[in-house]
Amino acid sequence: MDERLKKLLRLTIERGASDLHLVPSRFSSIRINGELVSLSDEKILEPREVEIIILSLLDEDQKVKLLKYKDLDLSFSLDDKARFRANIYLQKNGWAGSFRAISSEIKSVEELNLPPILHEFIKKKQGLILIAGPAGCGKSTTLAALVDEINHTQARHIITIEEPVEYIFFPDQSIVTQREVPNEAYSWHRALKSALRQDPDVIMIGELRDPVSIAIALTAAETGHLVLGTLHTNSASQTIDRIIDALPDGQKNQARFQLASSLIGVVSQRLVPRIAGGRIPACEILIANQAVKNLIRENKVYQIDLVIETSLEQGMISIERSLATMVSMNEISEENAYLFALSQERLKGLL
C-alpha cells in the first residue's frame, strides 16, 4: 500500500472520521459526524498520483476487473488495527476512491444505543430480520452487533455473504463462515443458493439488492433459517413495499404470504448528531405481530405506520417518537430532530 494512502487512512482513524474521499486535483476530504471536512493541510493529489495510490491497493485480478468495469468494491486492513471498505471508481478527472472506516471492535446493542427489543429478535430460530435506512446510517454496524451476539450466546452455524466482507467475526459458541463476493464466491446469487445447502442456522446477507436475492431470502426464512439483511429504504412500511415491489408480478402474491409468515421485525434507523458530540441512532421498530402479518397478506401496507404508532406497549416505535424521546433526554436538538423526521407534523405533536 502506498505510504501517502496509509497516512490519509491513519488520519481518518485519528480524527474519528467515518469516510475518506480521494479525488484528483482536489483536497482529500473526511466525513466527521456526517459532515465533510476538507484536509486542506494535506497536498492536493494530481490524477496520476491518485491512480498510483489506488493501484497500490490492488492485486492483478482486481486491476483487470477495475479496468473492465470502471469501479470495484474491496475491503482491506491497515496496520492490523483497522479495516476499510473501499469503492474505487473512474470519474471525469481520473480515478477516485471512497474509503469507509470499519471498527475492528464489534460493539454490542447496548454500546450502539440500539433498542433492547433487538435481543428478542435474534432469539428466534427462524424468520426474517431487516435493517433499513439510507446509506451511511450504520446498518452494517447494527447487523454485525446482532450476528456477533448470536455468535457469543448460541451454538449455531452462521454464514455471511457480503460484497465486500466488512466486520470480521471470531467464532465463539457458533461456527461462523464468511464468504466475500467475488473472492470466496463466484457470484452473489450462487453464494445465496449454495448457503441453503451448507447446513446453516443463520444467514446474514449484506444487502438484499435484487429480486433473486429477495426471493432466496424469503424462502430461506420460511424453511427454518434465521435470515438477517439490509435494505436502502427510509421506513419500515417502505421496506415491506420494497420487498414486494422488487419481485415480478407473478411472484408478488406468493411473496406477501411468505413475508407475512416469516417476518420477525424491521429496524429502520438514522444516525443523528448528538448535542454532546458524535452521533446516536434514532430507530423505528416494527414487530411483525398478527395485525402486521394480516396487513401484509391483504396488501394494506399503508396502514402499518398507524399500527407502529399505536403499539408502543408491544415495543414498536416510530422514528418520530424515537426522535422526540431523544430531544426530551437532551441527547439531540429539536432542529436536528425535525431534519431527520419523516413526518414533521407528527414530530411536532409528540414534542
Could you describe the 3D structure shown?
The N and C termini lie far apart (51 Å). The chain has a seven-stranded mixed beta sheet with strand order 9-8-10-11-7-12-13, sandwiched between helices. A six-stranded antiparallel beta sheet has the order 3-2-1-6-5-4. It is of the alpha/beta class. The mean pLDDT is 92. It has 14 helices and 13 strands. It has two domains: 100 residues, Beta-Lactamase; 234 residues, Rossmann fold (3-Layer(aba) Sandwich), CATH 3.40.50.300. Helix content is 38%, strand content 25%.
CATH class of the largest domain: Alpha Beta
> Which structural class matches the secondary elements?
alpha/beta
Largest sheet: 7 strands, mixed
What is the overall number of helices? 14
CATH homologous superfamily caption of the largest domain: P-loop containing nucleotide triphosphate hydrolases
Write a compact overview of the structure shown.
This protein has 351 residues and is α/β, with parallel strands linked by helices. It is built from 14 helices and 13 strands.
